[in-house]
Design brief:
There is one protein chain. It is globular, with a radius of gyration of 20 Å. It folds into two domains: 167 residues, 3-Layer(aba) Sandwich (Rossmann fold), CATH 3.40.50.2000; 164 residues, Rossmann fold (3-Layer(aba) Sandwich), CATH 3.40.50. The strands form two sheets. Strands 3-2-1-4-5-6-7 form a seven-stranded parallel β-sheet, sandwiched between helices. The chain has a five-stranded parallel β-sheet with strand order 9-8-10-11-12, sandwiched between helices. It has 355 residues and is α/β, with parallel strands linked by helices. The longest helix has 22 residues. The chain is built from twelve helices and twelve strands. The two termini are 23 Å apart. About 2% of the residues have low confidence.
Length: 355
């Protein structure tokens, strides 16, 4: 079989990389398509995955409309040459539309329910694979549920072994306390109306957390001069190892905190939109803490971070919580290999996945 996988975010590379490797071992062919946004290309190259880049993404409303047309055409043209049997993505409009024109199934994995995108790809998608918590697609006729998160595709113990070696590049040893602050660019269409963490609160978080741990900043956009001394300089493929050993992640994004939950690292999120998987990870597994972007909640988020950092046995406590999560969730890579190997019976519910 031949698979065309469209990538819209660095996390999507992680989501599909091990699935592609396992299937390629069995003789199947893969091609990844992407745009230049953050470090998708570096990850694809680091993992030896074949890809085609369509160039840099566009910003602004007019730019995004133009990009949708341009990248959609490039996706279709690439597919015509590659001739895939399946299109696979994390909710890609480009893959969905190209699959329709090619008469091939598009299988989407979804966990954000970003409905300006869902409405554009769902009519052209055969099935949507989602986690088994309640969400807007839970009862949709195209929905197929599995017990897991996207992050269990690459951070489940079957797929990931933590390596302390990247700590050395930061002047750290295993057991040294450190915090990662994660800031986003707020340039995506679903970011309209969000302001994120204020400069005042960023300064205060750095000052307060530095009392307990070394502070690093991971940012999608260029950091202001006063913060550049804290910039996290690490190879993209080493980030998950650092998240495993971190004492705390304090973020205005969803993906990295969700990765922390699967790794057993405390995280704090400030975002006005509710993330359903982070809500479950907070309420059921007590692995993270969700706050809004309000000034008062940013203050509370700093206080919660200080509380966590002041607990010497916090990492051990989080490892126990992580084990409960892993008992409930499947290795998503193994699930995807099973799903496509046994398609269409797997999609029709005629056979059941055995973890």
């Amino acid at each position: 079989m031949k698979f065309l996988i469209d990538i819209g975010h660095p996390a999507h590379v992680h989501l599909f990389k091990n699935f592609a490797r396992e299937m390629m071992k069995q003789g199947h062919s893969f091609l990844f398509t992407c745009r230049q946004k953050e470090f998708e290309i570096e990850l694809l190259e680091a993992h030896g995955l074949p890809y085609v880049s369509f160039g840099p993404k566009y910003t602004g409303l007019i730019g995004k409309i133009w990009g949708m047309l341009k990248f959609g055409w490039m996706e279709y043209r690439t597919a015509r040459r590659f001739k895939p049997d399946f299109f696979v993505s994390h909710g890609s409009i480009y893959a969905a539309h190209a699959s329709f024109l090619m008469g091939k199934p598009h299988i989407s994995l979804e966990d954000t329910y970003n409905f300006e995108q869902v409405r554009l790809y769902l009519p052209f998608t055969k099935y949507v694979l989602t986690a088994n918590y309640t969400h807007p697609l839970s009862h949709h006729k195209k929905n197929i549920s599995y017990p897991g998160y996207h992050e269990t595709a690459y951070l489940h113990p079957n797929q990931f072994t933590p390596n302390p070696e990247p700590l050395k590049a930061l002047g750290l040893s295993e057991g040294d306390p450190f915090v990662i602050l994660r800031f986003v660019s707020w340039n995506a269409t679903h970011d309209i109306g969000h302001k994120g963490i204020s400069m005042e609160m960023k300064r205060k978080a750095i000052q307060e957390f530095s009392r307990y741990a070394k502070v690093f900043i991971s940012s999608e956009s260029l950091l202001p001069e006063e913060f550049r001394q804290y910039q996290l300089k690490v190879r993209p493929q080493d980030l998950h190892h650092l998240l495993y050993y971190a004492s705390l992640v304090w973020a205005e994004s969803f993906t990295i905190p969700a990765e922390c939950s699967v790794l057993g690292t405390p995280s704090i999120i400030m975002h006005n939109t509710t993330s359903l998987y982070l809500k479950e990870q907070e309420e059921k597994y007590h692995l993270c803490f969700n706050f809004s972007e309000s000034f008062e909640d940013q203050e509370r988020a700093i206080a919660k971070g200080m509380e966590i950092l002041s607990q010497p046995d916090c990492k051990q406590e989080w490892r126990v919580k992580r084990e409960q999560l892993l008992r409930d969730k499947v290795d998503l890579t193994a699930y995807l290999v099973w799903f496509f190997t046994h398609y269409p019976e797997s999609a029709q519910g005629k056979i059941t996945f055995q973890s």
